Amino acid sequence: MEHFIQLARQLNKEIMIESKSPYDPVCPVHTPHPWQMIGCGNYAAVFVHPDYPHYVVKIYGRDEHGLLEEKKVYERLGTHPSFSICYYTESRYLILKRIQGVTLYDCVHKGIKIPEHIIYDIDEALRYARRKGLKPSDVHGKNVMISGNKGIIVDVSDFYKMEDCRKWKDLRKAYFTFYKKTLYHFPVKIPYFVLNGIRVGYRYYRMLKSYKAVK
Question: What keywords is this UniProt entry annotated with (predicted)?
Fold first, then answer.
């Protein structure tokens, strides 16, 4: 682990991460060899080194205060089969246990069936997090992965926030009212541009709902 920490420190010094919009994922300008970027989200990008396939380095590109909160979230969660583990943190980055699998988002893109028990795995994981005093937020198709035939939540960075979040409730509803009755039985590959259009449309739908609720 000590050698990997040194590699992570060097990566942190060399990498530059930017975002064109606060609504779009962050993106590294250049990834030093032999590191590979395996994911990026609203705040951070995730990298893996070929010599250490069981670890990832999550580097924040903005809202670095959230890094300390994410560390606290992992401390509260402890060890649970539906979450990763945080091994180490320093300025701007965390070292986490790598979860290998396929996200629900990519399952729909690739035409891979999403079994019903995966949804129940996530339900149980969210109940567990609430029992630990957390308020799960931002749980959606890109943050939920099927790994070893089990549902895993791969991003807990917003679990410390106190506002209500309907993303998982809405995704769960879409699974049982639409997906289970159609794509589950007749899997087809859905292009990313279609999925991204749905993602953007959903964001504006929730914004409109919030606006009407305030009025």
Answer: Kinase, Serine/threonine-protein kinase, Transferase
